[in-house]
Design a protein that fits this description.
2 strands, two-stranded parallel sheet, 74 residues, 3 helices, mainly alpha
Length: 74
């Protein structure tokens, strides 16, 4: 089982800006890097049988969405 937790690039930029612990984002424009990575990886992520969208809001909402999606998949 694989779960693709999809998130808009803008949200990823905001979330990753909170800490400086992302080696791939150092030394460049985080928005450009995340946009490129998203485009490169999306075809592979799309193969996951479970797809959940993550947006602004509490992480608990995404966790509940994942649990619900897994429950439906099973």
């Amino acid at each position: 089982m694989a779960v693709w937790i999809d998130c808009p690039v803008e949200t990823l930029v905001e979330r990753t800006a909170r800490k400086n612990t992302r080696p791939l984002l150092q030394g460049g424009d985080p928005h450009a890097i995340l946009t490129r990575l998203h485009a490169e990886r999306q075809p592979f992520y799309a193969e996951a049988p479970i797809h959940v969208s993550s947006r602004h809001g509490p992480h608990s909402e995404t966790a509940l969405a994942i649990i619900g999606a897994i429950d439906q998949w099973l």
